[in-house]
Amino acid sequence: MVELISTINEIIKYGLKPNLTVTDKEKWLERHLVKIYDLYFEIEYKFDDTQYPSFDKSRLPDIRKNITSNFKNFGFYKTVLDINDIDNLKDNTIGDAIDDLSDIITDLLEIKWRIENNSLADGLWFFELIFRSHTQQHILDLLNFIIQKK
């Protein structure tokens, strides 16, 4: 899972450090988001039922503030509530690219922490769980935002 950790590191840096000087930040972010999405399909683990300590999100830096400094043109976007309701042109909602990336980074930090502090199986189990229930939609929304603003 070396590829997983290195891909996670390429994404989380935007939430851990402000004002990064990276050429083509959005292109590289997009590439690594797609890579995380792809790695999800390769998850294989044996369930580990050990009782491990929990991830402490309170010790994280101000991820949102760092993302804002790294992606100054990220912000709100419009999306539809029900993509399958093609006759309904009125029910829209507002999304937030900074919030999407913040949630993605927080999820990836926990996956990485579990792999490094608990066990590989625990980290992969959490990756599978959180991806399906949370991270996946944020990745799709953020990728759509990046594509649409070009």
UniProtKB/TrEMBL annotation:
InterPro entries in alphabetical order: DUF5063_sf (IPR038312)
Name of the protein in question: DUF5063 domain-containing protein
